[in-house]
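Q: What does the assembly look like in three dimensions?
Context provided by user:
Components: three
Sequences:
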Amino acid sequence: MASQRRRKGESLFIRYLILGTWALFCLAPVLWFLSIGLRPRTEIITPQPIYWPTFSLDAWHMIWSDWPMAKYLRNSVLAIIGSVVIDLVLAIPAAFSLARYEYRGRDDIGFYILSTRMMAPAIVAIPIFFLFRNMGLLDTVWALMLVYAAINLSIVTWIIRSYMIDIPKELEDAARTDGASDLRILWEIIIPAILPGIITAAVIAAIFAINEFLFTLLIASTPNAYTMSVALANFTGGSDGLIYNAIALVAFLAFVPVFLVVVAIQKHLSRGLTMGAVKG
Amino acid sequence: MARIELSGIQKKWGAIWGVRDVNIDIADEELIVFLGPSGCGKTTTMRMIAGLEDPSEGEIRMDGEVMNDVDARDRDVAMVFQGYALYPNMTIYENIRFPLRMRDVPKVDQDRLVREAAAMVELGDLLDRKPGALSGGQRQRAALARAVVRKPQVFLMDEPLSNLDAKLRQAMRIQIKHLQRQLKITTVYVTHDQIEAMTLADRIVIMEGGLIQQIGTPDEIYSDPANTFVAGFIGAPPMNLIEGRMEDGIFTAPSIRVEGLIRNLSGPVTLGIRPEDCHVAGAEAHVEGTVFGVEPTGDMTYLTINAGDALIEVKADRDYRSDLDVPETVAFDPARIAFFDTTSGQRIR
Amino acid sequence: MSDPALTETGAATAPAPTGIRRRRSKRMKTLFPYLLVAPAVIYLLGITLYPGIYAVVQSFYAVKFGPWRPVGFENYANLMGDYQFWGALWNTFVIGSISLTIQCVLALTLAFYAYRDPWVQGWRIIFLIPMLFMPSAVAFIYKLAFLDARVFSDILIRLGLIDGNLSIQSSIWGSRALLILADVWQWTPFLFIIFVAALQGQDEEVEEAARLDGAKWGQIFWNISLPLMRPVIAVALILRGIDITTMFANVFIITKGGPAFGTETISYFIYRTGFKFFNFGYASAASVIMLILTIIIAQLVVKRAFRSGRA
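A: Here is the predicted structure of the complete assembly.
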């Protein structure tokens, strides 16, 4: 009995050793990067790395005064919210159709929607670049909005579909005999019942939109339409190279809201990330 | 307040038959029960009446009007589901009001009607709760209130009590019957529980394999089964069915001999006799077997006799006791014997 | 309300209240679900089919600054002989498969240790933090730590493991390793959280039964939990695999494809050909080949995984 207990303690020690190491591995670069954002630029790239820098808010003042940071922020927010709204408007009826009706070609349509998630951005980047150039949308937030919506539409549709499938058929039948039309069933019964799923889908779409890099790089060729993600790559001070403390601060500026919403939807995260294939 | 006619109803999904051929004429204000094992087509038939499923063939008429092309929401039927199907995001009040809202009942009437319906099922003080905060019985009553609130033409109830425990089920059964008599609304009730069927129904429709086996009052179904399926399905324990031969008015099977049957029958035949029409006999016994099981229930004793190839159930006196495997004799009440064709299972009259 | 007898005669003569009940149109009923899904499909076709066709057409032209000049299969023929194109395919495969393998093993190990531990559950969010940074930000973290500020080298020197600064930048495998490290750091949490959810979703009774049968924890994991979560692993790896093979931000920011094109992924190859050298026809031809590969993989692997994943 005693030896068995000791073995249990040992395995517990190994468990926490491994998990603790991993937690350190996750956190150390983040904390170090935070320290980069809060130090003067002269202490970033030095012959010997400086581990205990002077505290400085230089970068904070710089991002607001030397760059149109407010504009980048506004671009990001506008493009992201706009794209999520487009996604929800298109995806909710589509998911409703895929989840609650039986018709010929349904599975193929569903798979087609899913398969657009597999398309590498680079494949369509060139035609879309020309498309937006011809439409005069290059360098605008509108173009970013449309692209983000397209990138996330498959994910949003599939996540919402997975939540809709879980609603018992009886509920829909009851509403139908109670006199509700199909659209009212969607609006009054199904949407309220899967609100957490819809929020999850929206949050995940927003995160992917914040992260998007290649399209943004191509479409936003001037600071006019820069978002945070691409603005980062352009924090250069002429011949001095990258201004890392500004980059670090902007990275955290984008990180904080993402962190907060993810904490809020933690329970649904795994389901959302697998487009509903894993019920968390 | 409608008469429902189903004629030549079929339902097929690809190669799978749901309902093969159903013809029923349901009278106004009648409470009719569809009874059968799972997969017999009873629920599908009900869903076709509701308009939730389209028949592949045949016509559904309500008060003479063909309903096939009318949407469920326009048929003026109310349905009560096995899982209650209460809208989880709405309070009980909103749940009951939902059908009124969908039908554009004036706002001033809505509140009054909701409260009336809730009072009818004694739910008045739970109106502010969400369905999740209610017990099974309370949810069931809320579902009933939602169905009665708009005084529909037809009630459809799909195994509404099967998620409740036995005691509650009996109480709700009485309440449903009372409500139906009070409101005089034509009701179709689907169940696999024969006690529910017997106690509730004006008429019972017994279904199996997508076909109607028998339609009749509970009494007719019980005492006059149309075939071996009905005989073996109804009654707990069901009718004893003994395969044997008939010659010169004498029925014989291993260990069984019944004489003096005035029947113009010969050849293989199945004899049917209900357990309560059998009794432990002295001299004039029809069965000579051994005791296979004795199950006292308090008000009576179930006795099982091993007779040749057959096990015969007997409802014996409450004081009857016996050891197992000892010889015992049983007699049938000759007036209560029914005969069935052994191959087709149909009743021979 | 009405007298039963009246209703019967009413039915017989049938002055039916036809006007009251709306008749639905059969056509509308069959069309309805298509109408619901149509806007999404049209939108996606616009963003995939149109560009797809455009890319196919463009791939048969030489498109530089001037007008398009038809060249037939020349772009494809050139691609077949382009060692940079093949190199990009190879790099994508090498970096992707190594990174994916490491992430999967790590995530499974971590999930195995974490999933029944209430204390770890409460702090799970720590393990997700890397995933919540923008990929471009992560790329800069690693560029700075390993290349520009040489923190990694410095730590190794202080620990006495090496003598001078590492020259990661000039080594192909060093650069690849850096890309892999950044990807592993950021995205192992993705697999971790999915695996934890899958393990928690499994029936605890099965585990308890196995434990009563005398199985050890590790044995239970290998013999029961892991096989049960195979469909989940498949789905998660596919999603991760797609993202890894389309890796762009890290390459763009950290290595620019160097040294000697040793870390140029296929996405970066297309970007460089199209938007740095403005050789759009050639880049489109590469896109079309990628598109075909994607469709094949989608049909063979993804369809099956998602079907079984939800069964």
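Follow-up: The mean pLDDT of chain B is 90.
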